[in-house]
Design goal:
The chain starts with a helix and ends with a strand. It is an alpha+beta fold. Strand 7 and strand 8 form a beta hairpin. Helix 1 runs antiparallel to helix 2 and helix 5 packs across helix 10. The chain contains 15 helices and 24 strands. The longest helix is centred in the first third of the chain and has 19 residues. The strands form seven sheets. Strands 1, 2, 3, 4, 10, 11, 12, 13, 16, 17 and 22 form an eleven-stranded mixed β-sheet that branches. Bound molecules: uridine 5'-triphosphate. The site of uridine 5'-triphosphate has 21 residues, from loops. The site of uridine 5'-triphosphate (UTP) has 21 residues, from loops.
């Protein structure tokens, strides 16, 4: 107690001591435990550097655009390389050397949905949830390649129980239960603008997930790296819970990653404009680095050569990561990735015990980002992908990057696949489907699957304005 009191005083957090002194029994123990779990000296440094001032990102003078493997191979040699890489990727999947990793620990505040984001109903016809969509995709890939793909799902303390309960109550969507592994990321206290740690209840600090950069250390902490090793998993396909369009397993990317001895690889999309809200793939000091769109200087973002943006490569947060890389980075049980400041609305309990729900951002959340591991990799590659086939982020309820736009993109992709299988799709003047279609990810993982599926399950052309699910 003496220690706790001193620590809190030394770090300007006396209000926590006052809160503690009002408690007894289990409630007191709970808060004491939370306080003891925090490295207060380090937190005070972070508060000084990230909360009491707005940290400025320095842009290295030698910043240059990163090179990448293009979507369409640039000649016969590269075409051959892609073919070999695809085959290699399939071989790795078949051999059980790959696993899927979904980061689902975020709070999804922009979507404004009550519950883990993965439980959000996303498909346009059957309203399958994000988790179900991924589960069915993984079941199909496992079936297609005669493999047993393990799925690692990162939760946070705030949504871990709800996530596990959701899977249990849906019988893991048909996946073998022992192939689904949950693990929980770390947390950081939310700090108000005067540098004080906020409380979410009389006996609890307001804890927020520590960002998707927390994945790496959490994988070690919860024994996932050991488990992967035991299972023979060497490569991790990393994707975000809010992007159902992502292929849960990408043979070309996996194969290129392995053949090029990359430690961490990334998918890139050609940005639609200089200021699109995607991280920019850049190189500095010979190392790959992502510079956030908000930190990219305007003149660099706008710079063009022959009419094409120099910094064209944007990140949709899709990676392949070698298990050995994560093992190396976290070997000492520590990993220091840079922190990023996010200003958020955080509900809290004030000194009088009254709950406050702010209308405007009132606190700073500190997060680390997975892409800050890129400069730590000895070797990296970037592969361009077609946005229509892999990126439909569900960040907001409506508008840009929303549930609405995501549903449209899922439908557009499936309509295209149906046409490939010889089924006529009614289209509007602007080219978009004039019907809603949904292919089951349990039956159709890729274009070839779609052709096969409709060969054995012939279907009529959908009517205009109709809404149909297949499979
Ligand atoms: P976002 O950066 O979009 O954050 O996360 P979010 O928390 O989901 O949504 P907002 O900003 O509150 O609206 C991108 C991905 O990273 C995961 C999210 O679950 C999502 O898949 N993530 C984010 C974590 O797993 N942990 C975190 O601490 C933050």
């Amino acid at each position: 107690m003496q220690n706790i009191a001193e620590t809190l005083k030394n770090n300007n957090q006396e209000h926590l001591l006052e809160a503690l002194n009002k408690l007894s029994g289990a409630a007191r123990e709970k808060l004491e435990k939370q306080i003891e779990a925090i490295d207060w000296e380090e937190l005070s440094r972070l508060i000084r550097e990230y909360v009491m001032q707005n940290p400025v990102t320095t842009i290295p003078a030698d910043l240059a655009p990163a090179s990448y493997f293009p979507l369409v191979p640039n000649g016969a040699e590269q075409e051959e390389l892609y073919k070999k890489a695809f085959e290699k990727g399939v071989e790795l999947i078949r051999a059980g050397k790959t696993a899927a990793l979904t980061v689902a620990g975020g709070q999804g505040t922009r979507l404004g949905f009550d519950g883990p984001k993965g439980t959000y109903p996303i498909t346009p016809v059957l309203h399958k949830t994000l988790f179900q969509y991924f589960a069915e995709s993984l079941a199909r890939v496992s079936e297609k390649y005669g493999s047993r793909i393990h799925w690692f799902i990162m939760t946070s303390e705030l949504n871990d129980k709800a996530t596990r309960d959701f899977f249990r109550s849906h019988a893991f969507f048909g996946l073998p239960e022992d192939t689904v592994h949950f693990f929980t990321q770390g947390f950081m206290p939310a700090i108000d603008y005067s540098g004080k740690v906020l409380m979410s209840a009389g006996d609890s600090i307001a804890l927020t997930p520590d960002g998707h950069g927390g994945t790496l250390l959490a994988l070690r902490k919860w024994g996932c790296l050991d488990l992967m090793k035991k299972l023979g998993v060497e490569y991790i396909s990393y994707f975000q819970v809010d992007n159902p369009l992502v292929p849960v397993s990408n043979p070309l990317m996996l194969g290129l990653h392995a053949m090029e001895n990359s430690e961490m690889s990334s998918i890139m999309l050609s940005k639609t404009n200089a200021f699109e809200k995607l991280g920019n793939f850049c190189v500095t000091g010979g190392k790959l680095q992502i510079i956030e769109y908000s930190d990219m200087p305007k003149e660099l973002a706008e710079r063009t050569t022959n009419g094409k943006l120099d910094f064209i490569a944007g990140s949709p947060a899709i990676h392949v990561i070698s298990r050995s890389f994560v093992e190396r980075l976290t070997a000492g049980g520590k990993l220091e990735l840079p922190w990023h400041r996010a200003d958020k609305k955080v509900a809290y309990v004030n000194a009088d015990g009254v709950e406050v729900k702010p209308e405007a951002p009132n606190a700073v959340k500190l997060e680390s980002f997975i892409f800050d591991a890129l400069p730590l990799a000895s070797s990296t590659i970037i592969l361009e992908a077609d946005r229509k086939e892999c990126f439909a982020p569900t960040k907001n309820a409506t508008g840009v990057d929303s549930a609405e736009s995501c549903r449209e993109m899922l439908c557009a992709r499936d309509a295209r696949r149906m046409e490939l299988a010889g089924i006529r799709i009614p289209r509007k003047a602007d080219g978009s489907p004039d019907c809603i279609v949904e292919l089951s990810p349990r039956r159709v993982f890729d274009d070839a699957d779609a052709v096969e599926f409709f060969k054995s399950n012939p279907a009529q052309a959908p009517e205009r304005n109709s809404s149909t699910a297949y499979g």
